[in-house]
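Write out structure tokens for DUF4280 domain-containing protein.
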Amino acid sequence: MGQPSAITGGQLLCSFGMAPSALVVLPMNRVMIEKRAAANIMDMKPIINIPPFGMCMSMANPTVAAATAAALGVLVPMPCVPATVAPWAPGAPKTLIAKAPALTQGSTCMCAYGGVIQILMPGAVQTTAG
């Protein structure tokens, strides 16, 4: 049995973020699941598909490192700006959306600042992708 499909509005969380965020899928793939645009593994563009997660706590983030250094080593979270550089992995092994594997619960995406972005709630409640 497949995993639940990720669609617009699915809830995301970054391991270094302070708040959840909602997946944004542009309707250009023209695949709708439960009346919302379905995602594939290429829907990983910062800000466009993956909005900020409130504040970032990663010391690999230059703004966090600078603010922390200015505070004499006390961690100072700074506004999150996701820096994803690679597609989500793994995608659905058999289901393709716009010639790329469908995005499902269990997929993760890495931020260049070391955060692991995961899908907390994919959005689809009745539809799975295998």
